[in-house]
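Annotated sample (chain length 125).
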Amino acid sequence: MCKLNSLEKNLPQKNLRVKCKIWIETDNGVVFGGGRLALFQAIMECGSINQAAAKLGMSYRAAWGKITATEKHLGIKLVERHIGGVKSGSELTAEAKKIMEAYLQFKKEAEEAVNRLFHQYFDNL
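Output written by the structure step:
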């Protein structure tokens, strides 16, 4: 019996699935990924970096560090902070919303491609 036949008998095909994480980085670190997306979505929902950070179980400093690092890598403003007054809080810029939309679409298409390849290579085992 060859090893492939042994493998075929041992693979629980109904339970096999592929998982992948997609993020964008430079040589200096992460620019955008699932964590940044969650942070930006929480800022949109809460209208506050502090509240968004608390919701995600991180410190304000960690959240602000991720925002500023991403802004630095991309060279664009992503979050507008409004201190005091009626409009106190934070909101995403139009550029941040475009990045979020592009990332979500890219991630969806990348996962679809990975799933196609997974089935191409593993369905016949």
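Annotation: The first helix runs from residue 3 to 10.
Annotation: Helices lie at 3-10, 34-46, 49-56, 60-74, 94-122.
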